[in-house]
Amino acid sequence: MSNKNVVVLMTDQQRWDTIRALGNGTIRTPNFDRLCQSGVAFTHAFSPVPVCSPARDRLFTGADSKTLGEVNSHLCWRPTARSFHSVLAEAGYKTGGFGKMHFKPTRESHGFTHFALHEELQSGGREYREDDDYFVYLRDQGLGHIRYPCGVRGLLYSQPQTSPIPEEHHETKWVTDRAIDFIDTFHRVPFLCFASWMQPHWPVHVPKQWADLYDNDEIDLPVWNDEEQAHLPWLSRLMRDCSDMADGGKDPAIDRILRAKALYYASISYIDHQVGRILDRLEAHGLMDDTLIIFTSDHGEMLYDHLTVNKCVPYEPSVRIPMIVSGPGMRNPGTPADDFTTLLDIAPTIYEFTGVEPPTGCPLAGASLLGDREEVRGRQEVFSEIGTGITGGFVSIRTRKWKYAFNHFGGLKQLFDLENDPHELQNLLLDPVSTEAAQVAEDLHRQLLQWNRDHSVAERIVDGDFVTAPEPPIPTDRNPQYETFVDNLPEEEKAMLWSEARSVYEAIKDEKHLDPADLDLECWERLFGPGCIAELEELTKRELRSRKRVEAR
């Protein structure tokens, strides 16, 4: 067996427009730029399902929703689907997976011969510290008192914060260290290394040494306007109104938004630094001529465009992702390509590069990105989806000029002219609707229905059209997720944990752009128990209840 190695580098929730070599003049990403020079950056890459678990399922298997049978988060693929790392392991490869996987059950490796897990939070089956190798490592390093090793959710989910964990023990470095150890151990045999960082997913929490890499005055404002704020899809309104940043679209907290964006950029620059360490190690072992390197992310991030955060919506910042492929077999390295590509193309690329036959019984929905890419270059449209109608979400089609989306909650239809409105601020299907817009929407709707019949779940279509569900009320609670592993710790270890309020204080004590009095403290206390506000007042030495909040709902 020839030494054809594969390295897949994956971030979580990274926008496509966060690489300096591809046009972002603010961010510093020398190692992503390095990959752009040695390989091909695909500038129109998309997530087929812009939410964590399903996006990764499609990356690992190359299968569409019709095969996998799910389009929502925290579900696992059907037994007929096979991951590329399990197939390569059966072919004799050493396969290492390090970091965030989102597998179910949690400790199922799906074919990784070497496995070190770090997930974004301990819930939904990850309820013991021992389920997460990074959390065990922190305990062994004397840092087991930190309640939120992955950043504080709840009150601070998309707020500016920094990590109280020393840089040498930060999760981003921990994942990189294990990937490098794996490469050092197996560089003489064929290997596949998958390094998966949790950042820059909210809550962004960089080491303190990286927190001031970018100043607010370097950061561009997000894009939005008052008119479009009145016509956002339900999920967008949810992400806006629960952020404590936008006040229902009326009074954005601009300084805090810019600071959150600056920390998001810093997180990507910190990951870029770790990517450089991996590239340097591959070069030191003389592996660059025999190794396929793929960098991508599972989905994008709104980053306060349209005054919203997160993903799960059809807008470009949510569905569009970075994708760079470097190594033998790439056509025109150093020249970006604007082919429509998706995460579904990664498994076929790996199979072609290694010469390992793909599994039977699990049809590949994508195509290889090596060589002439004839099938890829012939694509005229790309599709994204989430949910089924009963659970909300959307289904969308994007061409070079148009994007059309059907949102299941409320049945909102959106049509954007991307050539003249690249920021998707004017929905052409709002009154008055032109004859051209109506005809384009009708044609794209028909294409979307046929694509769904061929490639997605049948439940989305009833009586020949997409399901429409009533819009539920916008929840008033903030992100209620927390590290449930703490509930199962021995009593003596629970007694050592930082409290909820202490965790918040340590994350924001150096944040000059965040005043905790502006946050939804009442909701936080309701979610996490009485006494949180009083303790935070004691830690900050100020009275936080005295300030009247302007309710966003």
Return the average pLDDT rounded to an integer.
92
Largest sheet: 9 strands, mixed
Distance between the termini: 62 Å
Radius of gyration: 23 Å
Strand content: 5-15%
| Tally of contiguous helical segments | 17
Poorly predicted sequence stretches spanning 5 or more consecutive residues:
548-553
Count of distinct strands: 15
Helix/strand/pairing category = alpha/beta
- What gross morphology would you assign? globular
Provide the helix percentage. 25-40%
Topology:
Layout: E1 5-11, H1 30-38, E2 39-46, H2 52-61, H3 65-68, H4 84-90, E3 94-99, E4 114-117, H5 133-140, H6 171-186, E5 191-196, H7 226-229, H8 234-241, H9 254-284, E6 291-297, H10 316-319, E7 320-321, E8 323-326, E9 337-342, H11 346-354, H12 374-377, E10 382-386, E11 394-398, E12 402-407, E13 413-417, H13 435-455, E14 461-462, E15 465-466, H14 491-494, H15 500-508, H16 521-528, H17 532-540
Parallel strand pairs: 1-5, 1-6, 2-9, 3-4, 3-5
Antiparallel strand pairs: 2-7, 2-8, 6-8, 10-11, 11-12, 12-13, 14-15
